[in-house]
Amino acid sequence: VQLVESGGGLVQPGGSLRLSCVASGFTFSRYRMSWYRQAPGKERELVASIANTGLSIDYADSVKGRFTIARDNFKNTVALQMNSLKPEDTGVYYCSRVAGNYWGQGTQVTVSS
């Protein structure tokens, strides 16, 4: 199993970023996929999660209405569109297949003026 994230960076408050995760080594369409984040000095937290079919999606209360998770089961990718970013969204964002405890290497998102 391999999960490779991309798309992080530095953005001003109110800006947008799109994170992408490319999965390989397993049958992607069979698994729920999630995005987590970890801010400095804080525990890792769930940001968004999407069922294998894409029909069930969950968001942390702190990102509802601003972030959108989506997947493409043909391209084996899961994306996180982040709009109206706030400084408190800063952290390392991880793509995860929770079943089996698989994680990507993470991508840094910094929201700062």
What does this structure look like?
The chain is mostly beta strands and 113 residues long. Helix content is 0%, strand content 50%. It has no helices and eleven strands. The strands form two sheets. Strands 2, 4, 5, 6, 9, 10 and 11 form a seven-stranded mixed sheet that branches. Strands 1-3-8-7 form a four-stranded antiparallel sheet, with no helix packed on it. It is globular. It starts with a strand and ends with a strand. The model has no long low-confidence stretch (mean pLDDT 97).
Q: Considering DSSP H and I runs of 4 or more, what fraction of the residues is helical?
A: under 10%
Q: Summarize the main sheet.
A: 7 strands, mixed
What's the alpha carbon Rg, rounded to whole Å? Answer: 13 Å
- Beta-strand portion reads over 45%
Taken in chain order, the helices and strands follow as EEEEEEEEEEE
Poorly predicted runs: none
Oligomer: single chain
What's the total count of β strands?
11
Distance between the termini: 37 Å
Total helical elements: 0
Shape, please?
globular
The chain-level structural class is mainly beta
Mean pLDDT: 97
